[in-house]
Every structure is written in structure tokens, then in C-alpha cells.
Amino acid sequence: MTAVVSNIDPFEIHEDVRTEDTEVMVDDDQTEDADRATEVAAEEDEEEESSDEELVDTGVQVDMEKLQGDFPGFKDNYRLIKRIGEGTFSTVYKAEDLQYDRYDNFWDHEIDAKWTPPPLRSNEAERQPRRRPRFVAIKKIYVTSSPARILNELELLHDLRMCPSVCPLITAFRHTDQVVAILPYFRHADFRAYFRDMTIPDVAIYLRSLFLALMSVHAHRILHRDIKPTNFLYDPTTQRGVLVDFGLAEREGSDSKPCLCHETREARKHRQSTSVWAQTSTTPQPGYPKSDTRSSRRANRAGTRGFRAPEVLFKCTEQTTAIDIWSAGVILLTILSKRFPFFNSADDVEAMIEIATIFGSKRMKAAGLLHGCVFETSIPTIGQQGFSIEKIILWSTCRSDEKPLTPEERLAVQFLERCLELDPSKRITAEEAMNHEFLRVKDEPSSQEMGADEDDMDILHA
Ligand SMILES: Nc1ncnc2c1ncn2[C@@H]1O[C@H](COP(=O)(O)OP(=O)(O)OP(=O)(O)O)[C@@H](O)[C@H]1O
Ligand SMILES: [Mg+2]
Ligand SMILES: [Zn+2]
């Protein structure tokens, strides 16, 4: 059994860790200007290791021991350090990859060639170079997840392994019904800790990294479906980010049925004029038919509250990669408005109300009709016209009209408006986004920008 990453081999899951396999390991710490970067990385590793030594909760310790015990040979391959994430579908641990040197980590060989020793400090001149530990993230997928769903996540990750800014899958193991995915560990900060301090150029760099990932994911005709800050691991210091968590991802069209939004305008108009709604809408009382004989609509609405695109809320049966662009837009709206979470609805109806409050009932109605849905409301706070995004940002950051948006902020807002188009067919694509003035690489980027971009390419494109 093997999970060797190549174009021909089908994706397979290991039975246990003893099986011979080629691990594909990526080092997230090496950079091209090796001198300073290596030094910084070593310092950060030390910092990180000392923070890793914090006491691990007894419950977590028990879980880690169980995981180690379940997989024969696990202890020889990985040293579990701590729990780093507990999501809806998995628990993620940080671990040291003990056998890193035994494998052909082809992601890394170029980097090794570029490596030069860091400048020596006087008191360090005698020091032997220390072997840097290589970290991995071990994603223990809950056994309650369906096998089809687990396989889907692993297969998509395998397909996307060469995509820049997408966290690659090193390998995966299975023991009875327990599957673990091994990913390169990516150092990142908590979004809530840095998003309020981001400057507009910082935001552009952050988004360029996110849209770079989306561009390649979408080129593979894959919808991520759960774009949100916790699934985009970003390190503000190195200004590098990777997209993780393909647990809800799907291939475009895999679960689709034709929806009105993909028909011509004329065909749509015709269908609307002959609909049940058109025939009953002459009655003054808004509402819905008491005995509706139509079968109920079923559409994939998986995702995270507050980040769902309007077409997801309207149960569009033919969703596209445009849903991810909306969610990326919500991240940008969060950053610019300095409010997290920006949307805070308890359910999909409330989510529609939130969106309608901003965009107005007129545009929301048109957005619903695209998918054959009628949006009616008598909520007084939802106006016909809604508000401009610029106004929303000024209000939420408590800025008065005397302190209008700067030209660079205005450019960011123009970009945001393209991401938050209610009509998915009009929404900017990831590829177009990369060419938008807001994200376009400036002619003379700052050295930090240069470094950040090249690192992305280096590590995740290699
Ligand atoms: N490669 C990685 N490097 C570092 N940390 C990671 C990595 N992968 C995941 N994590 C951490 O674990 C968390 C959960 O991972 P992931 O999103 O893949 O799991 P999930 O169970 O689907 O989560 P959720 O339901 O919260 O979206 C991430 O938000 C992140 O903090
Ligand atoms: Mg997640
Ligand atoms: Zn639709």
C-alpha cells in the first residue's frame, strides 16, 4: 500500500504506519533569503517549543496516548506534542515528524541547496548546528464521519497537492474506523489577534495569498465551501497563508441539479411568469400557499454561519465556486469593518435578513428570483435600497463623514463590492481577483512583500 504522490497513482489510505511509504514533507520555515530567515525560524522554533512545553490537559493527554496506542508504530514516527485544534469534524494535534530524514521529502530538496548558515553570533561560534525538528499537524477525523466524506477530503487534498497556498497532504493512515491525515504543520496566528491591526497593504497581501489558493482550487473545479478565517492559516510575521480543511469541499457539479440561475434571462423570465407565485401574487396578502404540492427543495447548505453566499441560503441547486468568493468577501468585510464575526445569525433566515439589511429588499428579491425563490419581508429595518458598503464600514468603525475613506481604502471597498455581488454569475472570479488593482502585485513591492510571495511559491508550488 502506498500513498506516493504522483499523477498516476490512485489515492490510497495506509492500513497502519508500518507500511513503507514515501512521505511528502513540506517545510514551512525555509525561505530563499536563508540567512536571516533561518535564524528567525530557529528562534521561533525555540519559542514555539517552549510554548509547546506548557502542560497538556489530562484529557488531551489521554486522547493523545489513545491515538498513539491505536496505531502500531505511531510512536516511532511521530511525537505528539499538543492539541492545536478541535473542530466540528476532527481534532488536530501538533507532532514532531521523527522519521523526516528517512523519507524522500522532494518538496524540500531545492531549499536545502539554497541553505546557507546563519551569521554566527560571537558566543555561538562554537555551537554545533542543531537538527531542527520538523513538525506536522495530525488531523484525527472523527469516526462518526462517513467513509465517503473522509475519502472525499483526502482525495481532493491529493488532487490539490501542488497548489500554491494550499496545505498539502503528506500522507494518511487508517486503523479500523479511525483515519488520520498528516499535514505539514503551518505556524499561524489567531485571526482575532491581528485583523484589527492590519493596514490596507497588509490586507492586500493576506488576500492575495487567499485568492492564490482559491484560484488553483477553482481551476481544479473544486468548491471549498467553508472559507473562513480559521480555515486559512496565516502568519502575519511572514505574511504567508495556507488554506486548510477540505472537509466540506466538493467537485463542481457533483451534487447539482439544474437551477434557473444557469438559464438565459428570457427563459428565467418565462419560468417566473408561469410560476405559482406569479399566479397568486395578485392577492394583496403576502404569504405562501397553504397546501403546496411542490416537492421541497434540497440543496447543499453546508458551510459556516455568516459566511454562506446568498445562493446557498436560497438553496440554489447548481452552486459554483463563486460561493467561496462570497465567503472571502465576508472575511474582507470583517477586516475593514473591524468586527468579528460580522454576520452573526442563528439560522439561514436570519442570515438572509442580515444580508437584506445591507443590500436592500429590492436587490435581495432579484437575487432570490435568480434561483426561483421569492424573498418577501415586512421587517421595518430592511429598506428598499439598503446601504453602500462604504457607509457600513464607516459606521462600524465609528468614523464620521469628516473622516472619509482614503483612496486605498476605497480601492479595497471596490474590490469588496465585486466579491459581494449577490448574483454569483456577476461576482468576481479568483483569477480576475488576482488581476484586480487591489490585489495586483505592485511594480516595486516592498522587500517584505517580495519575500512573502516568493516563499509561498517556494514552499507550496515546489
Ligand atoms: N496544517 C496545519 N498546521 C497548523 N495548524 C493546523 C493545520 N491544520 C489544521 N490546523 C489547526 O486545526 C484547526 C482545525 O483544523 P480543520 O479546520 O482542518 O478541522 P475541522 O475539524 O474541519 O475544523 P472546523 O470544523 O473548526 O472547521 C485549524 O483551524 C487550525 O487551527
Ligand atoms: Mg476548519
Ligand atoms: Zn441557482
Automatic annotation (TrEMBL):
Sequence ranges of Polar residues compositional bias: 273-285
GO cellular component terms attached to this protein's record: nucleus
Keywords: ATP-binding, Kinase, Nucleotide-binding, Serine/threonine-protein kinase, Transferase
Pfam families: Pkinase
InterPro entries: Kinase-like_dom_sf, Prot_kinase_dom, Ser/Thr_kinase_AS
Protein kinase domain: residues covered: 78-439
Record field: compositional bias (Basic and acidic residues): 11-21
UniProt entry tagged with the keyword Nucleotide-binding: yes
SMART domains (UniProt xref): S_TKc
EC number(s) from the headed UniProt entry: 2.7.11.1
Annotated GO MF terms: ATP binding; protein serine/threonine kinase activity
GO biological process: one example: mitotic DNA damage checkpoint signaling
Composition bias, Acidic residues: 22-32, 41-55, 451-462
Kinase in keyword set: yes
SUPFAM superfamilies in the record: Protein kinase-like (PK-like)
Stretches for region Disordered: 1-55, 271-302, 441-462
Protein name: non-specific serine/threonine protein kinase
